[in-house]
Amino acid sequence: MQEGLLWFDADPKRDLTEKVARAADRYQVKFGRRPNLCYVHTSALELSSVELGGVRVVGAENVLRHHFWIGEEEDARALKDEAPPRASGKGRYICKRCKAEALDPSAASCWNCGYDGRSE
To answer: Does residue 97 have a pLDDT over 60?
Structure first.
C-alpha cells in the first residue's frame, strides 16, 4: 500500500473490530472504494494479522499506537482498473487529474494539484 487514510481512535470503549470498521467506512466515503488492508501498531493485535469485516489487519512497528493506516493492497487495486466514482453528496466532486475530493465545485481550480479543468 503506497497511500491510504491515517485514522486515529484511542477510545477505550471501542474494540479493534469497531475501530477498523469506522476507519473503513471513512475511507469508503472519502475515496469511493472499500479498503482491504489496515496497518496497526503490533500491540493492538495478538496475532501478526487478522481479517476483520473484509479488511486484513496487519501489525507494524512503524505505526503509532491508536493509529490505523487503511487502504487498498496494490495488487487488488491494479486488478480493478477503473476510475474512482464521483463522491456522493450535494456539492462534491472529484478532481479529474489527482482524484482529490473537494467540497466546493465552484472553485476555480483543485485545492490539491491546481488543475483548472482546461490545462493538462
So the answer is: yes
